[in-house]
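Appendix B, record 7
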Amino acid sequence: MLSLTVSPTGGLPLCDQIVAGIKRQIDDRHLRPGTKLPSIRSFAESYHVSRFTVVEAYDRLVAMGYLQSRRGAGFYTAAAPAHADGAHPQPSDNHKRNEQLVWLIRRLLESDENTILAGGPWLPNSWLDEAGIRQSLNVLARKNGAYLLEYGHPFGYLPLREHLAQMLAGLGITAHPGQILLTHGTSQALELVIRYMLKPGDAALVDDPGYYNMFGNLRLQGIEMLPVPRNPDGPDIAVLDTLAEAHRPKVYFTQSVMTESHRHRHEPACRLQGAAGGRAPQLHGRGR
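Structure tokens (predicted):
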């Protein structure tokens, strides 16, 4: 039975009080593994807090490994790790990083249009061509077509894929529109690449620092991340070579724009990846 004290005058944010209270009951075995927690609405009504506060608390507890989210069924307590000395289990570093990641993504997604998203991948609205987007949408809306009502082609809007094929041809890259897949953004594209290229337990090189959202996706897929430090002139090639030789990763996710000297020095590591995985694309994300 869930028993908590949540008070606006408790000295801690309401979300922190909920997280600490549920953690304590799980650590003390007052909540057995598999116990179903109250629904978000029921919890909010019982403890006189907002649903948003409950959602954030449950999300943090899931990220920390204390709760499990079951689609359509709610939230359940997870099995607490056993400790021979009887001490209370402490969240692992990975759980702490996941908790921080959930917090960071939520903060960014909830920010208003005047917030400067220094840690996010979004461009300021003032940099975007709002007038051009409105004009294009108006033109499409005036055209007859089932694309206004139906899902459309799984690969994405054909005229746009044809336009991208022409742009790639101008760069010397031959690609048929049928070989181009449109995604809803970088995160979905990276997730598809991760699922296709890697399996749980594989290793991947990543920039340090790098894109936090991709790090969370890699952790979710069970991928071991090998951090390559970022120097003012690009990745630390010595570290990259050492990691590539020791772990033989299949993929290197990077947003660096390498100098020519870095590109030439990076080739041995790329050949090493190819020998290890048989398929070794270099994913150099050109940040925009």
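Remarks on this record: Residues 93-110 form the longest helix (18 residues). The longest strand covers residues 224-231.
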